[in-house]
Prior knowledge:
- By secondary structure, this protein is α+β, with helices and mostly antiparallel strands.
- It folds into 2 domains: 2-161, no CATH class; 164-290, CATH 2.40.50.1020.
- It is built from 8 helices and 11 strands.
- The chain has helices at 2-13, 15-45, 52-78, 86-89, 93-118, 128-161, 226-230, 277-290, and strands at 163-166, 184-189, 192-197, 203-207, 210-215, 218-222, 238-242, 245-248, 252-257, 263-267, 272-275.
- A hairpin with a 2-residue loop joins β2 (184-189) and β3 (192-197).
- α2 (15-45) packs antiparallel against α3 (52-78).
- The longest helix has 34 residues, at 128-161.
- The protein starts with a helix and ends with a helix.
Amino acid sequence: xxxxxxxLAHYQRWRxxxxxxxxxxxxxxxxxxxxxxxxxxxxxxxxxxxPWKPVVWETSSGFLILLLVPAVVVFTRRFPLHRDTWxxxxxxxxxxxxxxxxxxxxxxxxxxxLAYATQGEHYDFGNWxxxxxxxxxxxxxxxxxxxxxxxxxxxxxxxxxxxxxxxAAPDVGPPVExxxxxxxxxxxxxxxxxxxxxxxxxxxxxxxxxxxxxxxGRDYPLRSTIAGIEARLDPQRFARTHRSYIVNLDQxxxxxxxxxxxxxxxxKDGTTLPCSRRYRNAxxxxxxxxx
Length: 291
């Protein structure tokens, strides 16, 4: 368990670079192998295309898919396919796949025309309605594969780092603590369950339909909006500082004013968080009162 935790903590520091690197490497491998395959097929069929043309076809297609990946990441955060949300969110994926395909084709054709022009040639996409339908049949598979890969990656990551949830009401008898103002959160991690105290939460960050509870250097995703969890936390202990952040008042070491009217929060563990001007004055008053 400790080795997994240490590995995950190390990975989290490099997570963004690793994710970007994965998609870039996948694009390069795909482009190289697809280009080689098409070149061999062209030569076998004696179609007479110059070798650079298949490279342009495959590279332009793969590059546009690479550029569209961030949009799919954002979309899947906004419309996640969880056990309790898939019926409501799944219908959005059909129009999303159509938009994905159209953006892919338009960008791909533009890049091909540009590449052909540098060689003094003209690229003809062909019959647009017919070709768009053909490209969509291919693109929808790429879209589904990308969505599945993103959801699978998030599922594995959640299981490794632990996912928080609010305690549910007991089947029999009254709850031992008020559900509208939870004192503890349940965390499921690698098949085990444990409780974290609300007062141990140092700060909270919004992440789409999730909020990340930051506790002693670890993040535990909670399926809730930032406004939803704010309404259930003790207002004497927690304060909203930004549209995406809530902070534990006991963790604030210093409030640094900025020229813009905003502020920068310095926490006791060295973390810095933003504080927008909307919340700055109220935060200073509450932090002084708490002190």
